[in-house]
Specification:
The chain has 347 residues and is mainly alpha-helical. The chain is built from nine helices and three strands. The protein is elongated.
Length: 347
């Protein structure tokens, strides 16, 4: 028996309290860890039972991982769903009073849809792991990690709901309470309210989590369905991408024709071959997918046409109508005396 064990055992036999002994031994320079270890050995001998081993750091880290994964993936697919609905509402209910025009973008919508498709299954997986762990170890319902993340989520969603209401009232006072704005505010309220309801249930049973996941899955399927209805299939998007490249090539050619007009005493070039003599590096005068040359037709100066075979028809854009084209071979009439506008939808 060690010196500290002998002293503590003798002191305990005479009625000394644990608090007194800890303070006394610390005053005489003993580290707290050794004092508590000695007290532990004393009580283990008195009870005849070993001191229970706490969960290891690895298990605690695993618990934190799944809680954080569920929290992060929930935020990801909720935010992406809201952003997707904002884009859809903007296309369904455009506001002419807006000070700028931002056409819908497949790039933005595709990222939002991808985030939903990836994050929601990850959220379901992480939540199932958390629930299974809690069912096996009921004491984990009071886990500090769970309590902190729950309260953080409730705080964020409460602030978002308050901010949404403030924005709604401010828009009403400013006379901007349009149907589009109301729909977007309602979207924020529904999504933030769903998260608030989910976390406010605390340690709800698996049936509640299953009901929440089922409702969320239905909402996600509706959102993705509307997104694909708006954007088309990935194969169609590939066709749009090829047509955007064709428009970009024609735009570069139009810039060269405009420069030629300004430089050569208001004259149109006779053919596109004049631009392939090495003076215009990077200029493409042939379709990069079919290898067929783009067509150039001089008209009454300064008018001319550029023609290409497109796979899709362009979406009407009143802000930049010059590059409108039909599916198939289509010619676009341009003016060499004017700098060409950048085609809408070309990145």
């Amino acid at each position: 028996m060690s010196e500290i064990d002998a002293f503590l055992q003798a002191a305990k036999s005479r009625g000394a309290s644990d608090e007194f002994l800890v303070a006394l031994m610390k005053e005489h320079g003993w580290p707290a860890s050794e004092i508590y270890q000695s007290l532990g050995r004393h009580y283990a001998a008195e009870t005849g039972l070993p001191i229970p081993t706490a969960r290891g750091r690895l298990e605690s880290a695993r618990e934190a991982f799944f809680h954080l994964l569920a929290f992060a993936t929930l935020a990801s697919w909720i935010f992406a769903t809201g952003s997707l609905w904002f884009e859809l509402i903007d296309t369904w209910l455009p506001d002419p009073a807006r000070s700028f025009y931002r056409p819908w973008s497949w790039n933005r919508i595709s990222w939002q849809m991808a985030a939903i498709i990836v994050a929601f299954p990850a959220f379901v997986y992480a939540t199932r792991a958390v629930l299974a762990d809690m069912e096996s170890n009921p004491d984990k319902a009071a886990s500090p990690i769970r309590r902190w993340l729950t309260n953080i989520a409730l705080l964020f969603t409460a602030l978002i709901l308050i901010g949404d209401l403030v924005t709604f009232v401010a828009a009403f006072l400013q006379g901007e309470l349009t149907l589009r704005f109301v729909a977007q505010c309602l979207t924020v309220s529904i999504l933030a309210g769903a998260v608030f309801l989910y976390y406010s249930r605390g340690t709800a049973k698996r049936t509640w989590n299953r009901s929440f996941a089922l409702g969320a899955a239905c909402a996600i399927l509706l959102s993705l369905g509307l997104g694909f209805l708006k954007t088309g299939s990935p194969a169609e998007q590939r066709q749009y991408a090829e047509d955007r490249r064709r428009l970009q090539d024609l735009y570069q050619i139009a810039n060269r024709v405009h420069a030629h007009w300004d430089k050569d005493t208001k004259a149109l070039p006779k053919t596109l071959n004049e631009f392939t003599n090495g003076d215009t590096p990077g200029l493409t005068v042939s379709d990069p997918f079919t290898q067929q040359p783009y067509k150039y037709n001089p008209l009454t100066p300064p008018k001319y046409e550029l023609c290409a075979v497109f796979l899709t028809a362009s979406v009407p854009t009143p802000q930049r109508p010059a590059w409108a084209h039909a599916a198939g071979e289509s010619c676009i009439e341009l003016d060499a005396s004017k700098s060409p506008a950048y085609p809408a939808g070309v990145n």
